[in-house]
């Protein structure tokens, strides 16, 4: 007998902010493509059955429901309230959801390190993919702007590639797979002091072949997805931020580092959460 979890629904966190409403509108568009129900969720500090009730939460959910149903047909919408704190409640929901969609981080990247951020906490701990809204290019899923995925060969990167292909297939959009390289550290045996001034064409050819091979199986699974492979010299944070300007979604794996550790060793996912110009899909083991 199979014991695998049945994951259902796209969960949109609703907190009354404009960003959360914009994220919910995007989630509705994605839910239509995936043929999944949209679950609007508001987290309250007290249990929803308390004597005080939760009228403010109802107002937030009413506003979100009006927005997601505007112009949408055949969209199944569910709504619910849950006891807080928000990050804990949303992580619990991630155990059975197909995807979480959150509004933009309400703090700067530095404040997230010092004071924490619910968006960062959920992205680092969720057991399903998390999309963090970055409201630059509109709510509707597009068939022209690409889905971009960062590829580095890690297990988490492989998960991001899998989800990026799935999104591109459901969205009917092209996929851009980006792999970055630098002279230092990432090249291992390729790098030595005397190679700093040599021709890197052999390395580039090697990396291009590796990138093509790493995508081959997914391209066979999703043959209708138009794939562009891009090899870029530079750090992944800077390169992927630049690609986010023309993308409709950018997908990366996340190691789940806490904000303080990420600030020291660097976190591509956290940088994208705060600075990307399109929604960010964070993929972790789940």
How does this structure look, described?
This protein folds into 2 domains: 97 residues, Rossmann fold, CATH 3.40.50.620; 150 residues, Rossmann fold. The longest helix has 21 residues. It is elongated, with a radius of gyration of 20 Å. Helix 1 packs across helix 2. The protein has a 10-stranded mixed beta sheet with strand order 3-2-1-4-5-10-9-6-7-8, with helices on both faces. With 286 residues, the chain is of the alpha/beta class. Strand 1, helix 1 and strand 2 form a beta-alpha-beta unit. Helix content is 41%, strand content 18%. About 6% of the residues have low confidence. It contains 10 helices and 10 strands.
Mean pLDDT: 83
Low-confidence parts = 108-116, 259-266
Number of strands: 10
Q: Main sheet, how many strands, which sense, barrel?
A: 10 strands, mixed
What is the CATH architecture annotation of the largest domain? 3-Layer(aba) Sandwich
Helix content percent band: 40-55%
Radius of gyration: 20 Å
Distance between the termini: 20 Å
Name the CATH class of the largest domain.
Answer: Alpha Beta
Strand order of the largest sheet: 3-2-1-4-5-10-9-6-7-8
- Shape, principal axes of CA atoms: elongated
Quickly count the domains. 2
Helix segment tally: 10
The computed structural class is alpha/beta
Query: What is the fold-level CATH name, i.e. the topology of the largest domain?
Result: Rossmann fold
Strand content: 15-25%
Protein name: Usp family protein
GO molecular function, one term: ATP binding
Keywords: ATP-binding, Nucleotide-binding
InterPro entries: Rossmann-like_a/b/a_fold, Universal_stress_UspA, UspA
């Amino acid at each position: 007998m199979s014991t695998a979890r049945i994951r259902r629904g796209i969960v949109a966190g609703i907190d009354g902010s404009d960003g959360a409403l914009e994220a919910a509108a995007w989630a509705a568009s994605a839910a239509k493509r995936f043929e999944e129900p949209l679950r609007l969720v508001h987290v309250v500090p007290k249990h929803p059955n308390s004597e005080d009730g939760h009228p403010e939460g109802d107002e937030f959910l009413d506003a979100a429901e009006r927005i997601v149903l505007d112009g949408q047909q055949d969209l199944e919408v569910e709504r619910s309230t849950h006891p807080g704190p928000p990050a804990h409640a949303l992580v619990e929901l991630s155990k059975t959801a197909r995807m979480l969609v959150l509004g933009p981080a309400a703090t700067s990247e530095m404040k997230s390190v010092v004071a924490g951020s619910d968006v960062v906490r959920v992205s680092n701990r969720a057991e399903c993919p998390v999309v963090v809204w970055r409201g630059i290019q509109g709510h509707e899923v597009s068939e022209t702007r690409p889905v971009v995925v960062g590829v580095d060969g890690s297990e988490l990167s492989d998960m991001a590639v899998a989800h990026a292909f799935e999104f591109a297939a459901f969205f009917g959009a092209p996929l851009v797979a980006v792999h970055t390289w630098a002279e230092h550290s990432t090249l291992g045996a390729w790098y030595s002091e005397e190679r700093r001034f040599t021709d890197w064409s052999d390395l580039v050819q090697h990396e291009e072949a590796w990138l093509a091979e790493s995508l081959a199986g997914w391209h066979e699974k999703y043959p209708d997805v138009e794939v562009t492979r891009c090899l870029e010299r530079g750090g992944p944070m800077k390169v992927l931020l630049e690609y986010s300007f023309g993308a409709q979604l950018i997908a990366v794996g996340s190691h789940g580092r806490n904000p303080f550790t990420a600030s020291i060793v660097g976190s591509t996912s956290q940088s994208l959460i705060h600075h990307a110009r399109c929604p960010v899909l964070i993929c972790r083991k789940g």
